[in-house]
Amino acid sequence: MRFSVVVLITWFSALLVSAQYTLAPGLYDNRAPIFTMAGSFTIQANPAHYLGDIAVWEAGSSVSFNTNGDGFVLFIYRSILGGDGQVCIDGVCSNLSWFAPADEYQVPIEFSNLGAGVHTVEVLQSSGSINFDAVLIHPQAEVTATPAPEATEDPRFVRWEIDDGSGTVQPVVFEYRVDAGQVTLIQMVGGLLVLGLIFLLLTLWRIFNARD
């Protein structure tokens, strides 16, 4: 019984972490809270970037995420101030340069044929300034050449239409974002749920043992 409880707790915890941190196929902006950012970074705005901004890392910084696709595209911004970094997939790293003699926006860097299953991706800063604009996750076994994404309406916004009484319908946009504080709160709630489940299972185990 005790062994079964431990196995169930381990399985549930792994399932919770996987559900929170694995990117399904789709296009993700750099502000998506699913990305794990370490070190010092800033958000730089420019209409030429996807959805209008990029995340920029300085010395010793990194971003990581898990993907459940067969490949992905990392969209970056290259410039004369660009530095160097590495992209590590399941621990295997390759060098990548962010330098260009002239500004290059939404540059697609393709990584394909990763195989089935969940893959861990980490982008590391080596020297200078590096960034990322967006990440496109391919479906399983469906990797094609990918052009830069076209700017579309930001999914972080909700658009309503309101009649102002004059017969003219006015579009009204309401913004919603999940900031770092809310992400931390969600993680804390998830942790409390796991602890509650562990306590419940241990209580049941003690009840069953008492009956024996």
Textual characterization of the structure:
By secondary structure, this protein is an alpha+beta fold. It has one domain: Galactose-binding domain-like (Jelly Rolls), CATH 2.60.120.260. Helix content is 25%, strand content 39%. It has 2 helices and 15 strands. The strands form 4 sheets. Strands 1, 3, 6, 8, 9 and 11 form a 6-stranded mixed sheet that branches. A 4-stranded antiparallel sheet has the order 2-13-7-10, with no helix packed on it. Strands 4-5-12 form a 3-stranded antiparallel sheet, with no helix packed on it. A hairpin with a 5-residue loop joins strand 14 and strand 15. The radius of gyration is 22 Å and the shape is elongated. Mean pLDDT is 77; it is low at 1-20, 156-160 and 169-178.
What is the residue-averaged pLDDT?
77
Strand segment tally: 15
Rg over C-alpha atoms, rounded to the nearest angstrom: 22 Å
Please, how many domains? 1
| Helical/strand content category | alpha+beta
What's the tally of helices? 2
> What string, H for helix and E for strand, traces the elements in order?
HEEEEEEEEEEEEEEEH
Termini separation (Å)?
12 Å
At the first level of CATH, what is the class? Answer: Mainly Beta
User: What is the correct CATH architecture?
Assistant: Sandwich
Biggest sheet overview: 6 strands, mixed
Reported by name, the CATH topology is Jelly Rolls
Q: What would you give as the CATH superfamily? A: Galactose-binding domain-like
